[in-house]
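Notes from hallway chat w/ T.B., transcribed later so I don't forget. T.B. wanted the structure written out for a chain they're using in a teaching module, and asked if we could keep both sequence and structure tokens in one place. Agreed to drop them here.
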Amino acid sequence: MKLFSREVAALAGCVALMTAFTTSADAQSKVQVPKNWQLLSYDTDSVFGTSTEKAYKELLKGKKSTPVIVAVIDSGIDTLHEDLKNILWTNPREIPGNGKDDDHNGYIDDVHGWNFLGGKDGSSLKEDSEEAAREYYRYKTKYGNPDSSLAKDSKEYTIWQQLQSKVEKPNSQFKVQYKSMSKLQENVNKCETILKNYLGKDDFNVAQLDSIQTTNQDVLLARNFMSRLLKSAGDEPATFGEFKMEFDEYMNELKRKAEATDVLPNANRERIVGDNLEDINDNKYGNKDVMGTFGFHGTHVSGIIAASRNNGVGIDGVADNVRIMAVKAVPDGDERDKDVALAIRYAVDNGAQIINMSFGKPFSPHKEWVDAAVKYAEEKGVLLVHAAGNDGANNDSVANYPNPNYLDGSRAANFITVGAISTGTMPDKVASFSNYGKKEVDLFAPGVQIYSTIPGGNKYGSASGTSMASPVVAGVAALVLSYYPELSAKQLKYVLEKSATPLPDGSTMVNKPGSSDEKIAFSDLSVTGGLVNAYEALKLAATIKGENVKGKKQHKAKVKPIKKN
């Protein structure tokens, strides 16, 4: 039996599409950079890092810090990972595994956090629909009938027209694209099986493929096919495993878009979670499983913030005295406003001082719920750090949620939105995928080729996106707060933004994200026009008198010291 079908010849065109799926870096460059480049400094390492290591050596040596709780609202965390297990937040009022709600907060056995995607039977929702598809179906019941007598000059009808253009018109294109790429996926899976069996390894890289010498024709075909594919995929993932994770994520997204008009968008949610989606007061759902089987994103984000430092394994996170609270609320697909709102409230109520939110979407049907939660966090002195998005779009003119703009016209003072910068060694100094905005994006941070923890047995890998830039900023915020614990969320935001620096190589004009050759002033891409800088932030924090915020909880007595491996 031949490895490939007669359709293989047509797949050459599909390979060219691979650079379209990767949000994993600027594809033009093959430059190798240090795996911890986000912690380094331009003056010593020639990369656009945060000068974190410089701060530890020059500013923090011999100084004491206090623990900071950072909530990661994401897809889940590998709680068994060697670089994360010792920095997890543990609920001091909950007895693990006794099946009781010991602290009476409504969540049974929430030892390391809570899973708002969980079912009563212990399962978890992995795949959910996109918000555009959910809104499309909701409005279709009102305006889908062409003979409808409902007002067609209303704001709702305008939204319905926008949804039609976003969902209906591109749907046929996505169907064709998904069908073609599914052929590629099928052959990738066949190659994977053959090569893993031949090499006797669970993973492999391009160098190992190119070293294969055999007369087995199936192995040779698989070697050649996979080697070309990996080399075509952006900046060459370090291993096939890294490529496969991102490719599968891309295929899942493409499948959701292809099925947007065919599949009932709430079916999976209703079957597994079973809550009333339209009732924010129906809030005691989910389960204790904050890890699950699909926590790549949340695990990677958590490692960037706080992977155990100086333990002799893996990587070092930005901050050295952090407890990560796992709040699972982000599926493959768009997160629900209800889950986001309740996740923020859960984190605040359980002592989080900083919340990282590496997710986003173009529609927010219950923004009032999220606004209320953000206001609650603001009242309690909790800083929210949010990824700007990976569409190469201007957030000043394109909707991206959640955001700090309340429906009543006011604006949250505890909210930072983060764009992604590249290493500085690449042709594109700003990540080509990063969203930006002179009004709506506050600053930039490293977000390309970020090496961090991934699930599945103490593994590590690289990923890119504003999803990686956001936890870099959350980590710097936690670092500053741990040494200056009296700073309020508003002061912490001020410190991070005021200390942000211009591009350290002196460049003023950069590539405009989302365009092929247009240039723009870096200062016009964000409010500050700068990069987050841990060294400068700590220096500035030392000059500011902290303030106690009414309602802000003190968590020092509830946190155990970090165990060193």
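Follow-up for T.B.: Confidence is low (pLDDT under 50) at residues 1-30, 549-557. Might be a good example for the class.
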